[in-house]
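R.M. (postdoc): so does anyone remember the format we settled on? I'll just put the structure tokens first.
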């Protein structure tokens, strides 16, 4: 693996959903992968569309033991780089954690598309978990077809979205949109850990998949 290029962890800046409900980053989906990447000597850059401090979904606030275990990851969210300042740097991959915020500021963001398409075109990895695959929705490959077309991936399922009662509030249902774009979904039972690797595309289904998807990203990076 070319470790002189860091891994970009791209996190949401969106703090509200359509009807004013609080949202943001789902903390576990960032903290667990961040710490695993660091443990495995993968340099990490943390950026977001707006930069600065990241809103954390109130439902993912850590308990005391998590706060202690995730302290370094939480610190990294206090002052993230603004994507506009770093998108042109070279990366070995881009990893997008979820949280419902990602549904609002990732899919139609030209800089998100630019850094991910550029990384992909240069042979880098794209990873995402839960609602993080919302960042894949607007991506195009070199032939200008949807990047996810004919790719196998996982994401937060429609039934998981209904279970948390937010299916009516989302701008679209992520699993349905990815299928419309030609992706092949490989989904497990709701709220069970599940990661899918299709070449340099690594995706996880839900918050419970944070560890397995990070391990799959690490395995893919070290296989190069």
């Amino acid at each position: 693996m070319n470790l002189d290029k860091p891994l970009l962890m791209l996190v949401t800046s969106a703090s509200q959903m359509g009807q004013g409900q609080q949202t943001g980053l789902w903390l576990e989906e960032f903290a667990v992968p961040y710490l695993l990447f660091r443990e495995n000597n993968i340099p990490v850059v943390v950026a977001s569309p707006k930069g600065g401090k990241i809103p954390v979904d109130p439902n993912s606030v850590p308990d005391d033991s998590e706060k202690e275990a995730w302290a370094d990851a939480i610190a990294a969210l206090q002052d993230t780089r603004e994507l506009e300042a770093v998108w042109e740097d070279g990366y070995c991959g881009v990893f997008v954690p979820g949280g419902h915020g990602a549904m609002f500021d990732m899919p139609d963001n030209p800089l998100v598309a630019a850094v991910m398409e550029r990384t992909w075109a240069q042979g880098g990895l794209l990873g995402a978990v839960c609602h993080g695959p919302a960042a894949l929705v607007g991506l195009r490959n070199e032939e200008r077809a949807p990047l996810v077309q004919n790719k196998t991936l996982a994401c937060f399922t429609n039934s998981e979205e209904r279970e948390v009662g937010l299916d009516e509030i989302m701008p679209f249902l992520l699993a349905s949109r990815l299928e419309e774009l030609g992706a092949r979904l490989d989904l497990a039972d709701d709220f069970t850990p599940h990661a899918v690797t299709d070449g340099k595309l690594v995706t996880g289904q839900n918050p419970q998949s944070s560890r397995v998807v990070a391990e799959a990203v690490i395995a893919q990076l070290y296989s190069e």
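R.M.: ...and that's the designed sequence above, right after the tokens. Also worth knowing: The beta strands are 7-10, 44-48, 81-82, 93-96, 125-129, 152-153, 184-185, 195-198, 201-204. The CA atoms of residues 120 and 126 lie 7 Å apart.
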